[in-house]
Amino acid sequence: MIISCSAEQKVLEIPCEGTAIIAGYWSPKLGLNSQPGLVKWKEGKVSSLNPVNESEPLDDNILHWGSYYLQPGWLDAHVHLALDSIDFYQCLKNWENPELIEEKVQGFLKDYLKLGIVAVRDGGDLPGFSWLARNRVQKDSWLGPKVISVREAINRKGMYGRFLGRGFDGIADWQEGTRDFYNQGLDQLKVIVTGLIRFDKYQVVGPTQWTANELREIVETAHQRGILVMAHASGEEGISVAIAAGVDSIEHGYYMTSKHLEQMKRQSIAWVPTVAPIGNILKYPTDRYSRQEVDTLKRILESQMTKIYEAYQLNIRIGVGTDAGAYLVPHGKSLFDEMDWLVQAGIPRLEVYARATQENARILGRQDLGMLDIGTVINSLQLVKQDFY
Question: Radius of gyration (Cα) for the chain, nearest Å?
Answer without folding.
Answer: 21
